[in-house]
Amino acid sequence: MKFQPVIGLEVHVQLKTNSKIFCGCSTAFGSSPNSQTCPVCLGLPGALPVLNKQVVEFAIKAGLSTNCSITPRSIFARKNYFYPDLPKGYQISQFEEPICQHGWLDIQVEGQDQKRIGITRIHMEEDAGKLVHGEIAGLEKGSGVDLNRACTPLLEVVSDPDLRTSDEAVAYLKQLHQIVTWLGISDGNMEEGSFRCDANVSVMPVGAAQFGTRAEIKNVNSFKFVKQAIEYEIQRQIDLIEDGGTVVQETRLFDPNSGTTRSMRGKEEAHDYRYFPDPDLVPLVIDPAWVERSRSELPELPEKKKQRFMESYSLPAYDADVLTATRALAEYYEECLALQTNPKAASNWIMGEVIRGLNDSGLPIEECPVTPRLLTDLLRLIEEGTISGKIAKKVFDEVWKSGKDPKTIVEEQGLVQVSDSSAIEAIIDDLLAREAGQVAEFRSGKDKLLGFFVGQVMKASKGKANPAVVNDLLLKKLKG
Amino acid sequence: MKITAANVEHVARLARLELSDEEKNLFAGQMDAILAYVEKLKELDTDGVLPTSHAVPMENAFREDVTEPPIGTEKALANSPDRADAFYRVPQIIE
Questions:
Q1: What total of structural domains would you count in chain A?
Q2: Which of A395, B15, B74, B84 lies at a 20 to 30 A Cα distance from B39?
């Protein structure tokens, strides 16, 4: 029997606010345990949560950027369960009326048609605390609870069960990740848990009308692991069914070391959450004017920018894709364009030297020592024929190291391209006299030798001769 | 719906309460009586009335995204029955 996998994703996006969702404690990562807490996030009796307005602004922006409708009146609910990282015994979340609903993203898997993936809902909620095991003195027997993360604002983005392969799941996740980081509402740091994914996976016989029973795989925290976890889980379920077994609805944990998933037992009853409206938090009313203001504040989104780069600057899709990988990179490119440079040349240099330099140094584009001003100055020197493309790479490295402007470097190091034909002619005459044998071979039809001559002239000029002039003169003399 | 001892047992387990059989039966009867009393509301015509999530007609209470000083680790841990270093300590959680 052939099986069709069905995948839905729940993504938790940690929002980049200064303070927590319902209190004024800092959300900074990595502080000492329980130092960023107050009566609200500790869940002390009588404490009153008050909604951080920035969280709402971010949620609306996320919703508009994923084609959701914004719910005019939404409410918060208590999700009741017991776990040591949840001090109140309930998590404040949204249930019946989430802030964003019915959105979609168009994803692209290489070699396949674009596909639309539905977004069921996006809701706001608070994070739980963190449990620590073993590695702390005094925790040999027992677990430690750190509530710094408790009450940190999250968006939960729930997709429709529209995904069919692990590649589609990864494409969807990458696009969602790109949008939230582009909007600046999350740092998207997967290692620190700012972008976490749970995958609901089931399989059904091809052509079946009803989905199979699904397993939920928890907290898979890299794109690579998502792919691995989903593929493993699909195969596990198929093997199970083919061996005459049945898939049970359960929560499973992905183990990155073995690449497998395993059952998390003992949570069967946890699914009875008894949601009810949280009386501590008043309804959230978002009028159309608020939505429109928020829409007007949205930056140009990656997909749109990519299209514009292709149409306005005749960039190939590949270039446009690379340049819109992050908002900062796209902005770097646009700053270059604002300085009147050749769009394709700038694109080539960014995709080549700039990105290579960033990868080697580990710097973010914002801290690239070769600023758009310096890069475009360099490109101008090439365009004007002052230096060759080859010398330009040397100059680029110098600019990177010293921060000096390209013109100064070219002057200081005497790198100005020699286009003066008499100077080049002298080199050529000298060379041809020395290499009489090669010249004879060329003249008898061995055209490939032109490269050798060009190379020799460039070498003799220390790379400064203008290659176009060298070519012209060489041909004239060799054929002459 | 009649509340049974099994319903009471389920809710009690979710609330981490341990009840004797006697208590389960006692509470089933009491809860049933309470729900029957609330059932009376069904006699009202509530067409066109939104479900009430809050008793006070109020909306949009916000705070600005500004940090305020925390109470500090020592105060946070002051009432904890058990601690290790700056952590609350709880019985071992096996994942």
A1: 3
A2: B15
pLDDT at A419: 74
Q: Are residues A80 and A162 in the same domain?
A: yes
**b (16+ CB within 10 A) / e for A252-270:** bebeeeeeebeebeeeeee
Q: B68, A54: Cβ pair inside 8 Å?
A: no
Same domain, residue pair A264 and A405:
no
Which stretches of chain B sit within 8 Å of chain A by CB? 10, 13-14, 16, 53-56, 58-68, 70-73, 76-77, 82, 84-93, 95
User: All domains of chain B, ordered by start, with CATH?
Assistant: 1-44 (1.10.20)
For residue A295, what are its two tokens? 């829409």
Q: Which helix (H) or strand (E) holds A56?
A: helix A53-65
Whether residues A68 and A179 share a domain: the answer is yes
User: Which of the listed residues A258, A291, A324 is the one where a domain comes to its end?
Assistant: A291
- Cα torsion for A248, A249, A250, A255, to the nearest 10°? 70
**A44-53 in b/e burial notation, b at 16+ Cβ within 10 A?**
eeeeebbbbe
Q: How far is A248 from chain B (nearest CA, A)?
A: 19
Query: For chain A, which ranges sit under pLDDT 50?
Result: none
Residue pair A168/A200 in contact (Cβ under 8 Å)? The answer is no
Contacts of A60 in chain B (CB under 8 A): none
Establish how many alpha carbons lie within 13 A of residue A12's alpha carbon, considering only the half-sphere containing its beta carbon. Answer: 20
CATH value at residue A453: 1.10.10.410
The Cα-based distances of A332 to A188, A253, A350 in angstroms read: 20, 41, 9
User: Which residue is listed with tokens 């429709």?
Assistant: A160
pLDDT of residue A137: 66
**Complex ipTM value:** 0.89
In this prediction, residue A264 carries a pLDDT of 80
- Which pLDDT score is estimated for A390? 81
pTM (2 decimals)?
0.84
| Spatial separation of the C-alpha atoms in residues A34 and A22, rounded to whole Å | 17
A215 contacts chain B (CB < 8 A) = no
Containing structural domain, residue A105: 3-291
Q: Count of CB atoms within 10 A of residue B34's CB?
A: 11
CB distance A85 to A127 below 8 Å: no
